[in-house]
Design brief:
Shape of chain A: globular
Strand order of the largest sheet of chain A: 1-2-3
Distance between the termini of chain B: 38 Å
Structural class of chain B: alpha+beta
Mean pLDDT of chain A: 84
Strand content of chain B: 5-15%
Helix content of chain A: 40-55%
Low-confidence stretches of chain B: none
Order of helices and strands of chain B: HHEHEEHEEHEEH
Largest sheet of chain A: 3 strands, antiparallel
Oligomer: heterodimer
Low-confidence stretches of chain A: none
Radius of gyration of chain B: 26 Å
Largest interface: A-B, 60 and 57 residues
Shape of chain B: elongated
Number of helices of chain A: 16
Number of strands of chain A: 10
Helix content of chain B: 10-25%
């Protein structure tokens, strides 16, 4: 083999497989990269390594039983999944949630957003090479996880909401600790910004990398901060307010350039906005019941016919109750703004206690679909930054 | 709201690496502050009541046996289907008698539905999270194993079985009327619907029963 031939071979495009056991792909994501030197000319994501069949499983479980499964979608911010799932089922069953439960849900959802964004910032910075931020972020995340443990008994797999409200009321200790957290948190965000915001290595790795224009972002189906960084003002909390979002004041940060740095800035601003929402929710928290009167029991009946003991009869006679709220037939799509983007639940109900079909519109799955577009023409090292900036969670993507 | 960008750096700031020095300064400052790390095996974080951990059947202090009445509510609500119950009828009274109660804790997803629906507070997920083994068999708890878990939990934490309270025994903020009689136990005032907390005058305060009725 002469030297010319070997030189020509060195510049032939070649393929490498990144993942599924790669620490910077945030889970079991496999990317088949086609490289020309160090430039990516093709990218093919492979998903499904974490597939558990949540959608199919839910067809054999009652609506209440599927709720713990939604913890395992976006396991970084499972509270948000619980809230959106309960909202969807309540829309299907036509249940109105009491005011107090709405505020509690908004509060825990924003707490989930902060935990999600903190973990995103920690791992994203770690991928790019900033180790210290990781430790700082986990310090605050730990405080919020402790609060989750206090209010529902688990740190990650919360299962906190129920259909028609929340399972447990908040305690005074919870509110006071959370209020203290919201007072300290803006200064903590400033600490993260001191570490990386103006750091020249950080700027070199993020600015001008993975640019996506507003039109492309919409057509790729991006949602959440990834979409808003491109300058599209779309937030489910503002446009289709659910729970108590219409009663709290907050702003939606919008980016300009749509690169990795803007996505980072958007999420940092969202941290502060979420902090403000939590504060308002604590201060506005009204007294009252936490569960709707017509909320179904956890042991949900499976069919339309259900029997109830008549309270007026003392002999223990059981009679058929006709006017009990039945499960409605039809389909419903309800979405909510999760830390990653718009999480939607689509139910087809045939009037039984189980969904005929449940579809989950998970933002991570759609964001991974946008990876080939974003990675084309970038360097291999920037692929890591782009995956990190889209904030994908494979539990939600593969479901 | 447009996102804010920091102002561009001047030439002097660029040469002097000011932003990196600021970051290093923060790290240096943290070096002298109190550590937040818990040295796990040596020190442990106190858990909150209601942590969903190892399963146990509460031993009734009167009979010395499980309180379970074999109503099958836990088995039917379990999303992972990890609870197996068998019962037989007493020939004279026609009452249900528990013959087998098994929890496969490897299948369990620790949602806490079982302890919430239990009408007599027979089952509880204790605040015990350190249990491991080399085989699967120790995690298939039968009735005796679950009762043993309860005894071990009480012994380890030096708890009084009569005074042990868990938020799932009577969910916080639920009206007494909606609870089965077995769950109408005495709880701290804060856990009841009448004593629920709101934020007032810069701290969490309990509302009186009068205010709730006025709200309605």
């Amino acid at each position: 083999m002469d030297s010319n031939e070997s030189a020509a071979r060195a510049f032939e495009p070649y393929e490498i497989q990144m993942g599924p056991q790669h620490p910077a792909t945030h889970g079991v994501l496999k990317l088949d990269l086609e490289l020309d030197g160090e430039t990516v000319i093709g990218c093919k994501p492979t998903v499904g390594f974490l597939h558990r069949g949540v959608e199919k499983l839910s067809e054999n479980l009652t609506y209440a039983q599927t709720l713990p499964l939604t913890d395992r979608l976006d396991y970084i911010a499972s509270m948000a999944n619980n809230v959106v799932y309960s909202n969807a089922v309540e829309t299907l069953l036509g249940i109105e949630v009491p005011e107090r439960a709405k505020f509690i849900r908004t509060m825990v959802m924003e707490m989930a957003r902060i935990t999600g964004h903190l973990l995103w910032l920690a791992t994203h910075a770690l991928d790019i090479g900033a180790m210290t931020v990781f430790l700082y972020c986990f310090r605050e995340r730990e405080q919020l996880l402790d609060l989750f443990e206090e209010v529902c008994g688990a740190r990650l797999t919360t299962s906190y909401t129920c259909i028609g409200g929340v399972r447990q009321d908040v305690t005074g200790h919870f509110l006071e600790t959370l209020h203290k957290f919201t007072e300290e948190f803006p200064s903590r965000v400033r600490e993260y910004e001191t570490l990386i915001d103006q750091n020249r290595i950080w700027l070199k790795r993020t600015q001008g990398v993975g640019i996506v224009s507003a039109e492309d972002a919409v057509s790729l189906g991006l949602t959440g901060p990834s979409l808003r960084a491109s300058g599209v003002d779309y937030d489910v909390r503002k446009h289709l307010p659910f729970d108590a979002y219409s009663e709290v004041e907050f702003e939606v940060p919008i980016g300009k350039r749509g690169d990795v740095y803007d996505r980072y800035r958007c999420r940092m601003e969202e941290l502060l906005q979420s902090n403000g929402i939590i504060r308002q929710c604590i201060e506005k928290l009204p007294p009252g019941p936490i569960k709707a009167d017509d909320a179904p029991d956890l042991v949900m009946p499976l069919s339309k016919k259900c029997v109830l003991a008549d309270a007026t009869l003392t002999s223990g006679v059981i009679k058929l109750v006709e006017d009990r709220k039945h499960y409605m037939e039809g389909d419903v799509y309800v979405s909510g703004e999760c830390p990653k983007g718009e999480l939607g639940f689509y139910f087809v109900s045939d009037g039984k206690g189980r969904p005929y079909r449940m579809h989950i519109r998970s933002p991570s799955y759609i964001h991974i679909g946008a990876l080939p577009f974003l990675c084309k023409g970038q360097m291999v090292a920037d692929v890591i930054a782009i995956i990190g900036s889209l904030d994908v969670v494979l539990g939600e993507c593969d479901r | 709201m447009e996102i804010r960008y920091k102002t561009k750096k001047g030439l002097l700031e660029n040469i002097l690496l000011l932003e990196i020095l600021k970051g290093l300064g923060l790290t240096l400052k943290r070096l002298f502050s109190r550590s937040v790390t818990i040295q796990y095996p040596n020190e442990r974080k106190p858990l909150f009541p209601g942590f969903r951990g190892k399963h146990a059947l509460i031993r009734d202090p009167v009979t010395g046996d499980a309180k379970c009445v074999a109503c099958m509510r836990c088995a039917s609500v379990c999303p992972a289907r990890c609870i197996t119950i068998r019962f037989e009828r007493d020939e004279e009274t026609n009452a249900r008698r528990l013959t087998k109660y098994e929890i496969d804790s490897l299948r369990c997803i620790f949602c806490g539905y079982c302890e919430e629906v239990c009408p007599v507070n027979a089952l509880v997920l204790t605040e015990e999270y350190e249990y491991s083994g080399y085989t699967r068999t120790p995690f298939l708890f039968d009735k005796e194993g679950l009762l043993r878990n309860w005894d071990e939990f009480l012994e380890k934490n030096r708890l009084d079985e009569k005074r042990y309270l868990n938020p799932f025994m009577r969910p916080r903020g639920i009206s007494v009327k909606e609870l089965p009689s077995g769950k109408r136990i005495d709880v701290p005032k804060e856990w009841t619907l009448e004593g629920q907390v709101i934020w007032r005058n810069g701290k969490a305060e309990s509302v009186s029963a009068r205010e709730i009725s006025r709200e309605e």
